[in-house]
Amino acid sequence: MPRRYLTAAVAAACMSGPGMFGGPTAHAAIILHQDFSAGDPVSQYVSATPDIGQFTDIAGTTATPPATGSTSVSAASSSLVFTRTGGQGRFTRSDDFAGGATLFSAEFLLGVTGTGSATSGAVLRIGTGYLDDGSIPLNANTYNRLAFNIPASGNSFQIRDIGAGQNSASFFGPQVVRWYSNNSGSPASYLDPAGGTTILGDDLWDVWVGTTLVFAGRDVLTPTQAINDVKFIWNSGTGTMSFGSITFRNDLDLITPQQPDAVIPEPGTTGLLGLTLVALAAHRRFRDRRRARGRRA
Length: 297
Hints:
Elements: E1 4-5, H1 8-16, E2 30-34, E3 57-60, E4 71-76, E5 79-84, E6 89-93, E7 103-113, E8 118-127, E9 142-150, E10 156-161, E11 166-167, E12 171-172, E13 175-182, E14 188-191, E15 197-200, E16 204-209, E17 212-219, E18 229-234, E19 239-249, H2 267-296
Antiparallel strand pairs: 1-15, 2-19, 3-6, 4-5, 5-19, 6-18, 7-13, 7-19, 8-9, 8-18, 9-10, 10-11, 10-12, 13-16, 14-15, 16-17
């Protein structure tokens, strides 16, 4: 389904509330936000009862023989960094979102280095019933998924639509990835990274890298599944993947309207306003005194 831009009137209606296009609702909020600015240890970002800045699992593992290699995980340069020669790197948020998420958006700064070619080597999934271990969630438990390739050219990544078997162009250097999914039952709108307003149909997803719309209006994996958990697994390819400033939301408001700057009067205007108020106060006192003398007479 192709993306459609809204007219100003329709966009205003969509963004103002849960009308016919399913705009943001009053309960919309951040599910998780973590910028890893506190550095190591990684354990501080994990809890069985997570707050808004924690996962329920972050791990790097050693490959099971006869496979070799391992994956290490650290928090460095305000990023969660996986370095892989084998084994698995992962993070999970299995503590169900309060009330579930009928709209879901994710934003993170993704950087990849290395030359170990892998197609769908790393996958980010949202769904229900995910475990805090190395198990790959079943398709039946997964509402949607976003895959990443590590091209043979190295030091870059591609976005992959697994269902359509399509790959994006290669992206070099750290890039902001924004992923939008709609499980609300109605079309929904969001302010997009290119500065426009986009409608996303029910049970469809969009993904942007920077201001580039990579895939638009793609089908989710299991439309009947709920969105309660998030799980990322990297188990193919070698190199380093870093995630900076991860945000998960139960709305599509990764980008919000800019608030107008406050108008600060110039010093001369402020002084004139003060003199005017003093003069009005003096006039009022004079008027009240005349009325009082008139009543006594």
